[in-house]
Design goal:
Helix content: 25-40%
CATH topology of the largest domain: BirA Bifunctional Protein, domain 2
Distance between the termini: 40 Å
Oligomer: single chain
CATH architecture of the largest domain: 2-Layer Sandwich
Largest sheet: 8 strands, mixed
CATH superfamily of the largest domain: Bira Bifunctional Protein, Domain 2
Bound molecules: aspartyl-adenosine-5'-monophosphate
Length: 420
């Protein structure tokens, strides 16, 4: 079939009377065959002198060939150099040598040309799509809330200040306050997929300063259990549809994705504490404890996924919007969703009664005057509601077992990295 391909020249080899050029585009690598006698003699010199990763456009005829990658080989009728790559390349695309992640991220565009790296982003894209569709099937409206704010929701220490025409503003850490306000607007079921910024100085493999938060808020829920059922259902469907979408494009991650069996195990926080012999310590789990908990859940239930539920109020004190349980104000209905020892999501029922919300703000040492816009809907009829936030970067990390969350983002941002 006549046609053309345009892509990066991966390799060129001449062997006696035949030469092979490998050209990579979005669909993979195509083998281009030049035969002495039929191909224009100038093409051999042109390709031999052309640096790897230059862009070439080749007109010609595709013929099926079971031996070639992608099952076709391409016989050129015209070859044109579109752009020439400089030499040396700062990062090899096809060389099988170990390169530190930092070097890869410094030259990220070359790194992204590697099929194995691109496949991570195909997975991410399919997952976002599956996530979105699962929400739409449940009648959620997709919303976009402001990312430039006067107030944060998740604690002052991790806010990025911005100079906003001479005033102090902050980058949003979460759509938290707005998704709740929309419950007051009667939207009932909303979700948002958007950026969240955390001035997280910690240098770990699971923290970045800019991540994508998948948030949801649901009105008229009475219990945390109702929220968990929606969340685990969406999680399962999104992973299932990701697996089918990836299988269609022969992405190897399709074989490793296993949708979780629901319902996922639920482990009350108090039970986890008792297991560690520190009942009533009322502090969050350490990384070591998270690992031990994940192991014991897996041993007991066979599941890598689980909910840690009913967080003590003492741990969620700063989370002023979390509803304290009516029968025991020392507990909230808050839960975290874990994959192994990685916390992937966090959420629970919110406080919708103004007096209690004001009391929570006071306990957290926050001035209600700074939250006037958030508090207003609570004065004019707010239904009970709840929701959660899930980090897609952590979810991709969980599904791929990649050691570092930075690999799940195209151009990650952390304590030390603002380029490229
Ligand atoms: P939380 O602060 O627990 O809750 O964040 C929710 C989820 O966001 C992800 N996440 C991060 N991912 C990468 N790097 C970070 N620095 C980082 N910080 C958080 C995690 C985490 O589970 N407003 C609440 C949610 C709610 O109650 O609806 C919130 O933001 O996957």
């Amino acid at each position: 079939m006549p046609g053309w391909i345009e892509g990066h020249l991966e390799e060129y080899r001449a062997l006696g009377g035949v030469a092979f050029a490998l050209v990579r585009d979005g669909t993979g690598t195509t083998q281009v065959i030049l035969k002495k006698g039929t191909a224009d003699p100038s093409w051999f010199e042109l390709l031999a002198a052309l640096p790897r990763e230059s862009v070439v456009r080749i007109e010609g005829i595709a013929r099926s060939s079971p031996k070639a990658a992608k099952g076709v080989e391409f016989h050129p009728t015209g070859i044109r150099v579109v752009t020439r790559a400089e030499t040396p390349l700062p990062l090899g695309v096809v060389d099988r040598v170990h390169v530190e992640l930092d070097t890869r991220l410094n030259h990220r565009v070359l790194d992204l040309r590697k099929p194995s790296v691109r496949q991570i982003f195909e997975l991410r894209s399919a997952l976002l799509r599956g996530w979105r569709e699962a929400f739409h099937r449940r009648g959620f409206i997709e919303v976009e809330t402001p990312k430039l704010l006067r107030q944060g929701a998740e604690g002052g220490a991790t806010l990025f200040p911005v100079d906003y025409f001479g005033q102090r503003a902050y980058l949003a850490q979460s759509p938290q306050l707005y998704k709740q306000m929309l419950m007051g607007a009667g939207f009932e079921r909303v979700f948002e997929i958007g950026p969240a910024f955390r001035a997280e100085p910690s240098d770990t493999v699971r923290h970045i300063t800019e991540f994508t938060s998948l948030d949801a808020e649901v009105a008229s829920i009475e219990t945390a259990e109702e929220l968990r059922e929606i969340l685990e259902g969406i999680l399962r469907e999104a992973i299932e549809s990701t697996r089918s979408a990836l299988a269609e494009i022969a992405n190897p991650w399709a074989e490793t994705l296993t949708p979780p069996t629901v319902p996922l195990p639920r482990i009350p926080f108090a039970e986890a504490e008792a297991e560690f012999g520190r009942a009533g310590a009322e502090r969050d789990l350490t990384t070591e404890e998270e690992k031990r908990l994940a192991e014991s859940v897996r041993e007991r239930t066979g599941s890598a996924w689980f909910f840690l539920t009913d967080f003590p109020t003492a741990i969620k004190q700063g989370t002023f919007y979390a509803r304290r349980q009516d029968d025991d104000p020392r507990r909230t209905g808050y839960f975290d969703l874990y994959f192994e020892h990685l916390e992937v999501a966090s959420g629970g029922p919110r406080e919708h009664r103004l007096e209690r919300l004001l009391a929570n703000l006071a306990t957290a040492g926050l001035d209600p005057a700074g939250f006037a816009g958030y508090l207003e809907p609570f004065r004019f009829g707010m239904p009970p509601h709840g929701g959660w936030g899930l980090g897609i970067d952590r979810l991709v990390q969980a599904l791929t077992a990649l050691p570092n969350i930075r690999e799940t983002r195209l151009f990650p941002r952390d304590r030390w990295r603002l380029d490229p």
